[in-house]
Protein backbone atom coordinates (compact mmCIF):
# COMPACT_ATOMS: atom_id res chain seq x y z
CA UNK A 1 0.00 0.00 0.00
CA UNK A 2 1.31 3.45 -0.89
CA UNK A 3 2.28 5.40 2.21
CA UNK A 4 -0.37 7.96 3.02
CA UNK A 5 0.89 9.42 6.30
CA UNK A 6 2.52 12.77 5.66
CA UNK A 7 5.25 12.22 8.25
CA UNK A 8 6.25 8.85 6.76
CA UNK A 9 6.36 10.37 3.28
CA UNK A 10 8.75 13.11 4.42
CA UNK A 11 10.94 10.49 6.09
CA UNK A 12 10.97 8.52 2.82
CA UNK A 13 12.41 11.61 1.12
CA UNK A 14 9.32 13.21 -0.41
CA UNK A 15 9.18 17.00 -0.78
CA UNK A 16 5.69 18.23 0.15
CA UNK A 17 4.13 21.65 -0.49
CA UNK A 18 2.74 21.57 3.07
CA UNK A 19 5.18 19.84 5.43
CA UNK A 20 3.99 17.48 8.17
CA UNK A 21 4.16 19.04 11.64
CA UNK A 22 4.42 18.01 15.29
CA UNK A 23 6.08 19.62 18.33
CA UNK A 24 8.66 18.39 20.81
CA UNK A 25 6.99 18.14 24.25
CA UNK A 26 3.60 18.51 22.59
CA UNK A 27 2.06 16.61 25.50
CA UNK A 28 2.95 18.81 28.42
CA UNK A 29 2.24 21.42 31.02
CA UNK A 30 1.19 24.21 28.63
CA UNK A 31 -2.02 22.18 28.07
CA UNK A 32 -4.71 22.36 30.81
CA UNK A 33 -5.90 18.83 29.93
CA UNK A 34 -2.33 17.53 30.50
CA UNK A 35 -2.18 19.20 33.91
CA UNK A 36 -5.52 17.62 34.82
CA UNK A 37 -4.46 14.10 33.82
CA UNK A 38 -1.10 14.50 35.55
CA UNK A 39 -2.89 15.55 38.75
CA UNK A 40 -5.03 12.42 38.44
CA UNK A 41 -1.92 10.23 38.01
CA UNK A 42 -0.12 11.78 40.98
CA UNK A 43 3.42 12.53 39.90
CA UNK A 44 5.19 12.58 36.54
CA UNK A 45 6.70 9.08 36.83
CA UNK A 46 3.36 7.56 37.86
CA UNK A 47 1.95 9.08 34.67
CA UNK A 48 4.77 7.59 32.56
CA UNK A 49 4.15 4.10 33.98
CA UNK A 50 0.34 4.23 33.69
CA UNK A 51 -0.37 3.00 30.12
CA UNK A 52 -3.98 4.25 29.95
CA UNK A 53 -3.15 7.73 31.24
CA UNK A 54 0.13 7.97 29.28
CA UNK A 55 -1.80 7.08 26.11
CA UNK A 56 -4.43 9.67 27.04
CA UNK A 57 -1.88 12.53 27.36
CA UNK A 58 -0.22 11.41 24.11
CA UNK A 59 -3.58 11.74 22.36
CA UNK A 60 -4.54 15.13 23.86
CA UNK A 61 -2.43 17.30 21.49
CA UNK A 62 -3.55 15.18 18.53
CA UNK A 63 -7.22 15.88 19.35
CA UNK A 64 -6.58 19.60 19.83
CA UNK A 65 -4.26 20.22 16.87
CA UNK A 66 -4.40 17.21 14.50
CA UNK A 67 -0.59 17.00 14.39
CA UNK A 68 0.84 14.62 11.82
CA UNK A 69 2.63 12.63 14.52
CA UNK A 70 2.12 11.58 18.11
CA UNK A 71 5.15 11.00 20.31
CA UNK A 72 4.93 8.33 22.99
CA UNK A 73 4.58 9.90 26.44
CA UNK A 74 7.56 8.71 28.49
CA UNK A 75 10.98 10.11 29.41
CA UNK A 76 14.60 9.54 28.40
CA UNK A 77 15.44 8.89 32.07
CA UNK A 78 13.37 5.71 32.32
CA UNK A 79 16.37 3.77 30.91
CA UNK A 80 18.62 4.72 33.86
CA UNK A 81 15.81 3.73 36.20
CA UNK A 82 15.36 0.40 34.38
CA UNK A 83 19.12 -0.15 34.79
CA UNK A 84 18.72 0.28 38.54
CA UNK A 85 19.36 4.00 39.17
CA UNK A 86 17.11 5.76 41.66
CA UNK A 87 15.07 8.44 39.85
CA UNK A 88 12.76 11.15 41.14
CA UNK A 89 11.59 14.58 39.97
CA UNK A 90 11.75 17.69 42.13
CA UNK A 91 8.89 20.05 41.24
CA UNK A 92 10.16 23.22 39.61
CA UNK A 93 13.73 21.89 39.45
CA UNK A 94 13.88 18.73 37.35
CA UNK A 95 15.18 15.18 37.59
CA UNK A 96 17.38 13.71 40.33
CA UNK A 97 19.15 10.34 40.09
CA UNK A 98 21.60 8.34 42.15
CA UNK A 99 25.06 9.25 40.78
CA UNK A 100 27.77 7.21 39.07
CA UNK A 101 31.13 8.44 40.28
CA UNK A 102 33.28 5.39 39.50
CA UNK A 103 33.57 1.65 38.87
CA UNK A 104 31.80 0.69 42.12
CA UNK A 105 28.62 2.57 41.21
CA UNK A 106 28.72 1.18 37.67
CA UNK A 107 29.02 -2.38 39.02
CA UNK A 108 25.67 -1.99 40.81
CA UNK A 109 23.74 -1.42 37.58
CA UNK A 110 21.45 -4.16 36.33
CA UNK A 111 22.11 -6.29 33.21
CA UNK A 112 20.36 -5.33 29.98
CA UNK A 113 17.95 -8.29 30.05
CA UNK A 114 16.40 -6.90 33.24
CA UNK A 115 15.23 -3.57 31.78
CA UNK A 116 11.92 -4.82 30.38
CA UNK A 117 10.62 -5.67 33.84
CA UNK A 118 10.53 -1.89 34.49
CA UNK A 119 9.72 -0.79 30.93
CA UNK A 120 6.84 -3.16 30.09
CA UNK A 121 4.19 -0.50 30.85
CA UNK A 122 5.82 1.75 28.21
CA UNK A 123 5.39 -0.95 25.55
CA UNK A 124 1.77 -1.28 26.65
CA UNK A 125 1.29 2.48 26.12
CA UNK A 126 2.63 2.05 22.56
CA UNK A 127 0.23 -0.85 21.93
CA UNK A 128 -2.75 1.20 23.11
CA UNK A 129 -1.70 4.15 20.94
CA UNK A 130 -1.19 2.05 17.83
CA UNK A 131 -4.90 1.15 18.06
CA UNK A 132 -6.27 4.52 19.11
CA UNK A 133 -4.47 7.00 16.87
CA UNK A 134 -6.22 8.34 13.76
CA UNK A 135 -5.13 6.59 10.53
CA UNK A 136 -3.21 9.62 9.28
CA UNK A 137 -1.15 10.11 12.47
CA UNK A 138 2.28 8.48 12.73
CA UNK A 139 3.45 7.12 16.09
CA UNK A 140 6.97 8.08 17.20
CA UNK A 141 8.83 6.09 19.86
CA UNK A 142 11.99 7.53 21.40
CA UNK A 143 14.96 7.21 23.70
CA UNK A 144 17.79 9.44 24.85
CA UNK A 145 21.14 9.08 23.13
CA UNK A 146 23.78 7.39 25.31
CA UNK A 147 25.82 10.57 25.93
CA UNK A 148 22.82 12.59 27.10
CA UNK A 149 21.55 9.76 29.30
CA UNK A 150 25.08 9.24 30.70
CA UNK A 151 25.34 12.95 31.64
CA UNK A 152 22.28 12.58 33.89
CA UNK A 153 23.40 9.21 35.33
CA UNK A 154 26.85 10.52 36.22
CA UNK A 155 25.84 13.91 37.68
CA UNK A 156 22.53 12.75 39.13
CA UNK A 157 20.81 15.78 37.61
CA UNK A 158 20.83 18.18 34.68
CA UNK A 159 24.00 20.27 34.53
CA UNK A 160 24.72 23.43 32.52
CA UNK A 161 28.02 22.19 31.07
CA UNK A 162 27.94 18.41 31.71
CA UNK A 163 31.18 18.79 33.68
CA UNK A 164 30.85 15.63 35.82
CA UNK A 165 30.42 13.48 32.68
CA UNK A 166 33.40 15.13 30.97
CA UNK A 167 35.44 14.52 34.14
CA UNK A 168 34.59 10.81 34.30
CA UNK A 169 35.29 10.52 30.55
CA UNK A 170 38.78 11.97 31.08
CA UNK A 171 39.73 10.51 34.45
CA UNK A 172 38.05 7.10 34.40
CA UNK A 173 37.70 6.40 30.71
CA UNK A 174 37.18 2.64 31.11
CA UNK A 175 34.20 3.12 33.46
CA UNK A 176 32.79 5.88 31.26
CA UNK A 177 33.09 3.71 28.14
CA UNK A 178 31.50 0.75 29.92
CA UNK A 179 28.58 2.97 30.98
CA UNK A 180 28.15 4.27 27.41
CA UNK A 181 28.15 0.68 26.12
CA UNK A 182 25.57 -0.45 28.70
CA UNK A 183 23.24 2.43 27.80
CA UNK A 184 23.74 1.86 24.07
CA UNK A 185 22.83 -1.84 24.27
CA UNK A 186 19.87 -1.18 26.60
CA UNK A 187 18.60 1.50 24.20
CA UNK A 188 18.72 -0.90 21.24
CA UNK A 189 16.55 -3.39 23.17
CA UNK A 190 14.21 -0.66 24.45
CA UNK A 191 13.61 0.84 20.99
CA UNK A 192 13.21 -2.61 19.41
CA UNK A 193 10.42 -3.38 21.89
CA UNK A 194 8.75 -0.03 21.15
CA UNK A 195 8.86 -0.89 17.43
CA UNK A 196 7.47 -4.39 18.03
CA UNK A 197 4.65 -2.79 20.05
CA UNK A 198 3.73 -0.47 17.17
CA UNK A 199 6.08 2.55 16.99
CA UNK A 200 6.44 3.48 13.30
CA UNK A 201 9.38 5.87 13.70
CA UNK A 202 11.93 6.29 16.46
CA UNK A 203 13.76 9.42 17.57
CA UNK A 204 17.08 9.54 19.43
CA UNK A 205 17.42 12.67 21.62
CA UNK A 206 21.02 13.80 22.16
CA UNK A 207 20.10 17.00 24.00
CA UNK A 208 23.65 17.64 25.26
CA UNK A 209 25.54 16.69 22.06
CA UNK A 210 26.61 20.34 21.78
CA UNK A 211 29.10 19.98 24.64
CA UNK A 212 31.06 17.30 22.76
CA UNK A 213 33.65 18.75 20.39
CA UNK A 214 35.84 17.27 17.65
CA UNK A 215 36.95 13.67 18.27
CA UNK A 216 34.75 13.43 21.38
CA UNK A 217 31.68 14.33 19.29
CA UNK A 218 32.53 11.55 16.84
CA UNK A 219 33.24 8.99 19.54
CA UNK A 220 30.42 9.73 21.97
CA UNK A 221 27.61 11.33 19.91
CA UNK A 222 27.99 10.08 16.34
CA UNK A 223 29.30 6.53 16.98
CA UNK A 224 26.73 5.41 19.61
CA UNK A 225 23.88 6.84 17.50
CA UNK A 226 25.25 4.93 14.51
CA UNK A 227 25.53 1.74 16.59
CA UNK A 228 21.89 2.02 17.69
CA UNK A 229 20.64 2.78 14.17
CA UNK A 230 22.68 -0.04 12.60
CA UNK A 231 21.28 -2.56 15.09
CA UNK A 232 17.69 -1.32 14.67
CA UNK A 233 17.91 -1.33 10.87
CA UNK A 234 19.21 -4.93 10.94
CA UNK A 235 16.07 -5.96 12.85
CA UNK A 236 13.54 -3.49 11.45
CA UNK A 237 14.79 -2.20 8.08
CA UNK A 238 11.60 -0.25 7.32
CA UNK A 239 11.49 1.82 10.50
CA UNK A 240 12.86 5.35 9.94
CA UNK A 241 15.03 6.99 12.58
CA UNK A 242 15.22 10.70 13.46
CA UNK A 243 18.47 11.77 15.15
CA UNK A 244 18.67 14.97 17.23
CA UNK A 245 22.28 15.90 18.07
CA UNK A 246 21.16 19.19 19.63
CA UNK A 247 23.48 22.17 19.18
CA UNK A 248 25.92 20.10 17.12
CA UNK A 249 26.59 23.12 14.86
CA UNK A 250 28.87 21.97 12.04
CA UNK A 251 28.44 18.46 13.46
CA UNK A 252 25.01 18.41 11.77
CA UNK A 253 26.78 18.31 8.40
CA UNK A 254 26.97 14.70 7.20
CA UNK A 255 25.42 13.38 10.45
CA UNK A 256 22.60 11.53 8.67
CA UNK A 257 24.95 9.83 6.22
CA UNK A 258 27.47 8.91 8.90
CA UNK A 259 24.89 7.42 11.30
CA UNK A 260 22.30 6.02 8.87
CA UNK A 261 19.59 8.34 10.25
CA UNK A 262 16.68 9.04 7.89
CA UNK A 263 16.22 12.54 9.26
CA UNK A 264 18.20 15.02 11.33
CA UNK A 265 16.32 17.24 13.77
CA UNK A 266 17.73 20.75 14.03
CA UNK A 267 17.73 23.04 17.04
CA UNK A 268 17.07 26.75 16.56
CA UNK A 269 20.69 27.86 16.94
CA UNK A 270 21.27 27.07 13.26
CA UNK A 271 19.62 29.11 10.52
CA UNK A 272 17.15 27.35 8.25
CA UNK A 273 18.89 28.74 5.16
CA UNK A 274 22.24 27.34 6.31
CA UNK A 275 20.69 23.97 7.19
CA UNK A 276 18.83 23.72 3.88
CA UNK A 277 22.15 24.11 2.09
CA UNK A 278 24.37 21.96 4.29
CA UNK A 279 22.11 19.36 5.95
CA UNK A 280 18.95 18.97 3.87
CA UNK A 281 21.13 18.10 0.84
CA UNK A 282 21.46 14.64 2.42
CA UNK A 283 17.72 14.12 3.04
CA UNK A 284 14.92 14.94 5.41
CA UNK A 285 15.37 17.55 8.14
CA UNK A 286 13.12 18.44 11.07
CA UNK A 287 12.80 21.80 12.77
CA UNK A 288 13.46 24.46 13.77
CA UNK A 289 11.25 27.25 15.15
CA UNK A 290 12.52 28.81 18.40
CA UNK A 291 10.18 27.62 21.20
CA UNK A 292 9.97 31.16 22.60
CA UNK A 293 7.65 32.12 19.73
CA UNK A 294 5.00 29.88 21.28
CA UNK A 295 5.08 32.17 24.32
CA UNK A 296 5.22 35.52 22.51
CA UNK A 297 3.10 34.72 19.43
CA UNK A 298 1.98 37.58 17.19
CA UNK A 299 3.19 38.49 13.72
CA UNK A 300 6.76 37.38 14.54
CA UNK A 301 5.49 33.81 15.07
CA UNK A 302 3.71 33.88 11.71
CA UNK A 303 6.64 35.43 9.83
CA UNK A 304 9.22 33.08 11.35
CA UNK A 305 7.08 29.98 10.71
CA UNK A 306 6.61 30.95 7.05
CA UNK A 307 10.30 31.77 6.67
CA UNK A 308 11.28 28.29 7.92
CA UNK A 309 8.72 26.53 5.70
CA UNK A 310 10.06 28.46 2.69
CA UNK A 311 13.72 27.86 3.52
CA UNK A 312 13.14 24.08 3.61
CA UNK A 313 10.62 23.97 0.72
CA UNK A 314 13.17 22.55 -1.72
CA UNK A 315 13.43 19.16 0.02
CA UNK A 316 11.88 16.79 2.55
CA UNK A 317 10.99 18.64 5.77
CA UNK A 318 9.10 17.97 8.99
CA UNK A 319 8.09 21.21 10.71
CA UNK A 320 8.88 21.26 14.44
CA UNK A 321 10.30 23.48 17.13
CA UNK A 322 14.05 23.63 17.75
CA UNK A 323 13.48 22.28 21.27
CA UNK A 324 10.53 21.46 23.52
CA UNK A 325 7.53 23.76 23.94
CA UNK A 326 7.73 25.38 27.38
CA UNK A 327 5.08 25.33 30.15
CA UNK A 328 4.46 29.09 29.76
CA UNK A 329 3.52 28.75 26.05
CA UNK A 330 0.04 29.88 25.00
CA UNK A 331 -1.94 26.95 23.51
CA UNK A 332 -3.63 29.39 21.08
CA UNK A 333 -0.26 30.16 19.51
CA UNK A 334 -0.06 26.56 18.31
CA UNK A 335 -3.13 27.25 16.15
CA UNK A 336 -1.45 30.38 14.82
CA UNK A 337 1.63 28.33 13.86
CA UNK A 338 -0.49 25.63 12.21
CA UNK A 339 -2.46 28.21 10.25
CA UNK A 340 0.82 29.71 8.99
CA UNK A 341 1.97 26.24 7.84
CA UNK A 342 -1.25 24.67 6.58
CA UNK A 343 -3.12 27.80 5.50
O1 LIG B 1 5.53 15.23 24.43
C1 LIG B 1 6.66 14.69 24.32
O2 LIG B 1 7.64 15.25 23.78
C2 LIG B 1 6.84 13.26 24.76
C3 LIG B 1 7.34 13.03 26.08
C4 LIG B 1 8.74 13.49 26.47
C5 LIG B 1 9.02 13.99 27.77
N1 LIG B 1 10.37 14.13 27.90
C6 LIG B 1 8.01 14.26 28.78
C7 LIG B 1 8.34 15.11 29.94
C8 LIG B 1 9.97 13.41 25.80
C9 LIG B 1 10.25 13.00 24.36
C10 LIG B 1 10.99 13.80 26.72
C11 LIG B 1 12.42 13.80 26.39
C12 LIG B 1 13.39 14.28 27.38
N2 LIG B 1 13.33 14.16 28.74
C13 LIG B 1 14.62 14.88 27.05
C14 LIG B 1 15.14 15.10 25.66
C15 LIG B 1 14.54 16.28 24.99
C16 LIG B 1 14.96 17.59 25.57
O3 LIG B 1 14.07 18.26 26.15
O4 LIG B 1 16.12 17.98 25.44
C17 LIG B 1 15.28 15.19 28.27
C18 LIG B 1 16.63 15.85 28.42
C19 LIG B 1 14.46 14.71 29.33
C20 LIG B 1 14.74 14.73 30.79
C21 LIG B 1 13.77 15.53 31.55
N3 LIG B 1 12.46 15.16 31.75
C22 LIG B 1 13.99 16.76 32.20
C23 LIG B 1 15.30 17.51 32.21
C24 LIG B 1 12.78 17.12 32.78
C25 LIG B 1 12.55 18.31 33.70
C26 LIG B 1 12.50 19.57 32.95
C27 LIG B 1 11.09 19.86 32.57
O5 LIG B 1 10.85 20.20 31.40
O6 LIG B 1 10.26 19.79 33.49
C28 LIG B 1 11.81 16.14 32.46
C29 LIG B 1 10.39 16.13 32.84
C30 LIG B 1 9.38 15.94 31.77
N4 LIG B 1 9.49 15.06 30.72
C31 LIG B 1 8.12 16.59 31.66
C32 LIG B 1 7.47 16.07 30.54
C33 LIG B 1 6.07 16.40 30.07
C34 LIG B 1 7.56 17.58 32.69
C35 LIG B 1 7.13 16.77 33.85
C36 LIG B 1 5.91 17.27 34.58
O7 LIG B 1 4.78 17.00 34.15
O8 LIG B 1 6.11 17.86 35.64
Which descriptors would you attach to this protein?
TIM Barrel; alpha/beta; 343 residues; single chain; Uroporphyrinogen_deCOase; two-stranded antiparallel ribbon; 7-stranded parallel beta sheet; 16 helices; binds coproporphyrinogen III; 50% helix
How would you describe this structure to a colleague?
It is found in: Cytoplasm. Substrate binds at residues 25-29, 75, 152, 207, 323. This is Uroporphyrinogen decarboxylase. Its EC number is 4.1.1.37. By secondary structure, the chain is an alpha/beta fold. The chain has one domain (6-342): TIM Barrel, CATH 3.20.20. It is built from 16 helices and 9 strands. Strands 1-4-5-6-7-8-9 form a 7-stranded parallel sheet. The chain has a two-stranded antiparallel ribbon with strand order 2-3. α4 runs parallel beside α7 (115-132). The two termini are 29 Å apart. The protein binds coproporphyrinogen III. Coproporphyrinogen III binds at residues 24-29, 38, 44, 71, 73, 75-77, 94-95, 142, 158, 205, 207, 324.
Q: Which small-molecule species are bound to the chains here?
A: coproporphyrinogen III
Judging by the overall fold, what is the CATH architecture?
Alpha-Beta Barrel
Q: Give the total of beta strands.
A: 9
Largest sheet: 7 strands, parallel
CATH topology: TIM Barrel
Number of domains: 1
Q: How do the strands of the widest beta sheet line up side by side?
A: 1-4-5-6-7-8-9
Task: Please give the alpha-carbon distance between the first and last residues.
Answer: 29 Å
CATH class category label: Alpha Beta
Query: Quick check: average pLDDT?
Result: 97
Low-confidence stretches: none
Shape, principal axes of CA atoms: globular
State the secondary-structure class: alpha/beta
What share of the residues lie within helices?
40-55%
Proportion of strand residues: 5-15%
Number of helical elements:
16
Radius of gyration: 19 Å
Order of helices and strands, N to C? HHHHEHEEHHEHHHEHEHEHEHHEH
Keywords: Cytoplasm, Decarboxylase, Lyase, Porphyrin biosynthesis
Catalytic activity: uroporphyrinogen III + 4 H(+) = coproporphyrinogen III + 4 CO2
Binding site for substrate: 25-29, 75, 152, 207, 323
InterPro entries: UROD/MetE-like_sf, Uroporphyrinogen_deCO2ase_HemE, Uroporphyrinogen_deCOase
